[in-house]
Amino acid sequence: MYAFFFLISFGASIIGAICGIGGGIIIKPVMDAFGALDVSIINFLSGCTVLSMTMYSVIKAKIAKDSVINMKLGTPLAIGAAIGGLIGKELFSYVESLFDTPNTAGAVQAFVLMLITLGTLIYTINKNKVHTLHVTNLLACLIIGFILGGFSSFLGIGGGPINLVVLYFFFTMGTKEAAQNSLYIILFSQITSVGRSLFTTDLSQISIVLLIGMIACGILGGICGRAINKKIDEKTVDKLFIALMIVIIFINIYNTVKYLGILG
Fold first, then answer.
1. Is 239 inside a domain boundary?
2. To 10 degrees, the CA torsion angle through 242, 243, 247, 252?
3. In 3-state terms, what secondary structure has residue 15?
4. Going residue by residue through the chain (264 aa), what tens digit of pLDDT does each one get?
5. In a domain, 43, yes or no
6. Which domain does 190 fall in, by range?
7. Could you give the number of structural domains in the chain?
8. Which of 80, 100, 229, 263 would suit a FRET pair with 107, their CA atoms being 20 to 30 Å apart?
């Protein structure tokens, strides 16, 4: 089972680094589908994997001097996401406390993620027909980042496709520019989210081997994804992203009905 989780973490981090979605949107629902671990543990492991990948990707881009991160816009977005990430974790804890079992909270996560992914897919397919904005206001960036961080943290996905849609629509970014800026935002939100989880999650339930292995796979995936991203064009990135969204929608439909016990 560990080997499969490592493979998923590695593959998700490759795709995450290419598309700028972090990888949590793949890791989280796939691990949920297997049901081998509690939802809170999966959230933590997914968050640590995403954090390692984004940290490598952002730092490496800076060192290599090929970063296209818009610091003027990206930094307030990232700060807002970091704060929103804390609120998102609190919101999930509250939702979890409303139900007798964590499985029901997992069903809520899966259903909301499915709806957001579906909306993202529809937007991505039609994005060339949508009139976009050029937001530059500092306060607006902080608010947008806060909302992004809150949703991502609540869903346990690190950042995912929500970031890309927001960067496309509010800031008129191209696919690859949006990918790098998305990873920068995810990095900040994951630092606070994982930091909080260190104090609120029962770490005794987590295998050190599994944790270290997934973090290592996140970094390796970031290395491979970054290399692939340089060799493909934006249309290919868009096609990969669309295909991924379709797969994730079906996985989350499965997870929703599984957590609700509909599948028995």
1. yes
2. -10
3. helix
4. 899 999 999 999 999 999 999 888 899 999 999 888 888 899 899 999 999 999 999 999 999 999 999 999 999 999 999 999 889 888 988 988 998 887 888 899 899 999 999 999 999 999 999 999 999 999 999 999 999 988 888 887 766 688 999 999 999 999 999 999 999 999 998 888 888 888 888 888 899 999 999 999 999 999 999 999 999 999 999 999 999 999 999 999 999 998 887 655
5. yes
6. 2-259
7. 1
8. 80
